[in-house]
Design goal:
It contains 17 helices and 14 strands. By secondary structure, the protein is α/β, with parallel strands linked by helices. The strands form two sheets. An eight-stranded mixed sheet has the order 3-4-2-1-5-6-7-8, sandwiched between helices.
């Protein structure tokens, strides 16, 4: 089967960022599909041009048996909201041209919903090629944009909502990134038989893939001084993740120098958080964005005893969010302290792999981290329970079966 995959971002294993698109492309390939991905030439976290010196509005490369078309975009597009919107629209327009003129035949068009500008492109190209459309609902729009404040209630939000409903009606199958997103789609009257969950879990990740020498070297570069119990947060420093609460917890623990914090990631508030660490003398370091394999080496390190995640107090995050970093932590066998509600809290509780606090509860987070430090056996037990749950519920056999269903490969055969 020939699959045309539209995704704005496509970080490979050696790049920082979300692994879902590359994992999906690998699942398609391993199921026997011929995959062509159309993505942006600009790395969405670092702003780097990924064309490797090649010129032109659209360049082509092969990565591990997957064909990748990269279309031109704006460098440093995160500078402001208007530049970001322009970059998204340029990507959507050039991706449409590339899909029609460069991609070749396609029997399925698979599209991620982030950003929303790409979905009209996918619909146009699918219709022109006579291909069935598969929708990958990574975030709900416009709900997510409204929740983080980049979109205000009004005519634009209503139009976006109408458009997304239209896309869902025309999609052959829909993949939901979390159980909460699936539940919300059912509330919006999407038929249950057309929606399945494909979690944000990197099913190609193996906890034994990291070399211990590299782990210790990386921890030596990034670990806070005097810390023996290290808490890792690897994720965005943007609008949705409540890094402020984590820093508040670090401040409450600042006199307990055996507890240290490593924060790896990029986002709009990174400079602000770095300044606070310097001004408050927190036992914490920020690494900036790291390639996924380096971030995982730090998480896996013997000194990295627990991981943390925090969401701002918004209903959409409380109900629909199960971030990839949580499943990464679990796959690597780490106990998790989470400030938030909804899908993430439900998974951690069901797996017995973490401690959950209300959103914004820095004091509760500090107490949970102190308890894990003082009870290393329980911390290790939670980590093993996390790995077991990951293997049984979201591992590669489960993900492959969901992707096979979405592409209707049995019927195609």
């Amino acid at each position: 089967m020939k699959v045309l995959f539209f995704t704005f971002h496509l970080p490979l294993d050696h790049e920082p960022g979300a692994f879902r698109p590359w994992m999906e492309a690998q699942l398609m390939r391993d199921l026997g599909c011929q995959v062509t991905v159309i993505t942006s030439a600009i790395q969405y976290m670092t702003g780097e041009d990924l064309r490797g010196g090649r010129r032109g509005w659209c360049t082509e490369e092969q990565q591990e048996g997957i064909r990748i078309l990269r279309v031109w975009g704006l460098r440093n597009y995160r500078r402001n909201l208007w530049r970001r919107l322009l970059h998204y629209m340029i990507y959507a327009g050039l991706a449409c041209v590339a899909g029609i003129s460069r991609a070749g035949k396609a029997e399925r068009v698979f599209v991620g919903t982030d950003p929303i500008f790409i979905t009209p492109t996918a619909r146009i190209v699918a219709r022109m090629k006579g291909a069935r459309l598969v929708l990958d609902e990574r975030d709900l729009y416009p709900e997510t944009a409204l929740a983080i404040g980049v979109l205000k209630p009004g005519l634009v939000a209503k139009l976006m909502s109408v458009w997304q409903r239209s896309m869902r009606k025309r999609a052959r199958h829909i993949l939901a990134a979390t159980p909460g997103i699936r539940s919300r789609l059912l509330e919006l009257e999407v038929p249950a038989e057309r929606v399945r969950v494909l979690c944000n879990a990197d099913v190609y990740l193996h906890s034994g893939e990291c070399e211990q020498d590299s782990v210790h070297q990386l921890l030596g570069q990034h670990a806070p001084k005097e810390a023996k119990f290290i808490v890792v947060y690897a994720g965005s420093m943007g609008l949705s993740n409540d890094v402020k609460t984590l820093l508040d917890a670090a401040e409450l623990l600042c006199n307990e120098r055996d507890i240290g914090f490593v924060l790896a990631g990029e986002g709009e508030h990174r400079a602000e958080y770095e300044q606070r660490i310097r001004d408050s003398n927190l036992n914490a370091v920020m690494t900036g964005p790291l390639p996924r394999h380096e971030a995982r080496q730090i998480i896996l390190g013997a000194c990295a005893c627990a991981c943390a995640h925090m969401y701002v107090a918004q209903p959409s995050f409380a109900n629909d969010a199960l971030p990839s970093k949580i499943l990464d932590y679990m796959a690597l066998g780490k106990a998790v302290v989470f400030c938030g509600e909804g899908d993430t809290a439900n998974v951690l509780t069901a797996a017995g792999s973490g401690i959950c606090c209300p959103p914004g509860d820095a004091r509760g987070m500090a107490g949970a981290l102190r308890w894990l430090r003082d009870h290393p056996d329980e911390c290790n037990r939670m980590g093993k329970a996390a790995q077991r749950w990951f293997s049984e519920n979201v591992g590669r056999p489960v993900a492959s079966a969901v992707m096979e269903w979405a592409l209707e490969l049995e019927q195609h055969a």
